[in-house]
Write a structure and sequence with these properties.
Length: 207
């Protein structure tokens, strides 16, 4: 397992660079406001359809949520893109002894109110045209490894070109309040309802 490392200079450079390329490559970056609890960590669940996803949500956290950013990524990605660990990335490797260590680590991060943990529950990239977001079982183990005192935030990241040369990106956010006894299926259903509503809102956007 590769864990995050602290290097303020590297972090500041790539934080600046990510904001710069988002500004340069997208016509607009928009999101809606929700209430973010200061006394709770954030578990951010999002769809995963592009190379951009982690960077877009890193940027969202930087300008809006403002927690200590963490994201679970595949071991191969962590090994190839070495600077990601300086931006809060930690790795997971399927069918490896370190799998449970990664899930336990993610759960423990959620016990500290200053943290945000981004999880792509699909586990890998899927088409942006997917109508349903699948959930891997690891999410339930992350939740079980925590004290369950964190805030759930759903994010649906959608893009469109409309009449522009560059695409616009909109992050649809929702704060979700978990029941006392909730299962992976309950979370999946709740997220997918948010995803469906987000797509409906996006199709109603007028240029």
């Amino acid at each position: 397992m590769i864990k995050p490392r602290s290097n303020q200079i590297i972090h500041q450079f790539f934080s600046w660079y990510i904001s710069r390329i988002i500004k340069g490559d997208f016509d607009r970056f928009e999101y809606n406001s929700i209430e973010i609890a200061e006394d709770k960590a954030v578990l951010l669940l999002a769809n995963h359809f592009s190379w951009w996803d982690g960077f877009l949500l890193f940027h969202l956290n930087k300008i809006y949520i403002k927690k200590n950013f963490h994201v679970m990524i595949l071991q191969d990605t962590a090994e190839k893109v070495k600077f990601l660990k300086y931006l809060g990335a930690f790795s997971i490797q399927r069918n490896a002894k370190s799998l449970m260590e990664s899930l336990q680590y993610a759960g423990e991060l959620l016990d500290h109110p200053e943290n945000l943990v981004l999880i792509f529950p699909q586990g890998e990239l899927y088409s942006s045209h997917s109508t349903t977001i699948q959930f891997e079982k690891g999410l339930s183990r992350i939740i079980a490894a925590s004290k369950k005192q964190f805030q759930y935030v759903f994010a649906a990241v959608l893009t469109d070109y409309f009449d522009r040369r560059k695409p616009s990106v909109k992050v649809y956010l929702e704060q979700w309040v978990a029941q006392e006894y909730n299962t992976l299926q309950v979370i999946k259903n709740a997220y997918n309802k948010h995803y469906e509503r987000s797509i409906k809102q996006q199709t109603e956007v007028k240029v």
